[in-house]
Amino acid sequence: MSSNTYAGIEAAYxxxxxxxxxxxxxxxxxxxxxxxxxxxxxxxxxxxxxxxxLHSPILSRLRxxxxxxxxxxxxxxxxxxxxxxxxxxxxxxxxxxxDVVDYSHGKQLWELCVEKYEPLWIKGGNHCDLEFYPExxxxxxxxxxxxxxxGRLKNMQGSLTDxxx
Length: 165
Hints:
Elements: H1 2-19, E1 28-31, H2 36-45, E2 51-55, H3 61-65, H4 79-82, E3 90-95, H5 104-112, E4 120-122, H6 134-149
Parallel strand pairs: 1-2, 2-3, 3-4
C-alpha cells in the first residue's frame, strides 16, 4: 500500500513538471493524514518546492496506533524523520479534538520544521471537519498569499513565528 502512495505522488509530480511544464518552485504540496507520508517523502527530496501544507498529519503510521518513542525499520510514513529535511515553508493544520490522529502529532511535526509558518490549531476541530471552520480557509489563504509573494518565509518580516531562528 505505501509503495503505491509514494508512486502516486511521484507520478503526479512528474506529470506536472514534464507534461504541463510547471516549475518545481510553483508547486505547493498538500498532505492530509496518511497523505502526509508521501507528501513529506517527496518534499524532503525537492530543493525548490514552494511550500507544504500538512492537514492533520501523522508522525508515522506506527505512532498513530502505539506510543513508540523511536522509528522502527518496518514503520511506514516516517514523517518524524523526514520533516527536518524539508527546506520550504510548512503550514501545519490540526484539530485539537481529533479522535483519529491526536493533535500532538501535528504539534511535534511543526516543532521539527526548519521553515515553519504559524500553525493553525483548530479548537474543537475533529479529524474530518476542519474545512468547515472559517479560520481554516482564512489561514490557508493567508499562507498561500505569503508564499506566493516570495516563496521564502525567512525573507519576510512578521511571517515567521516567534519560535523560529
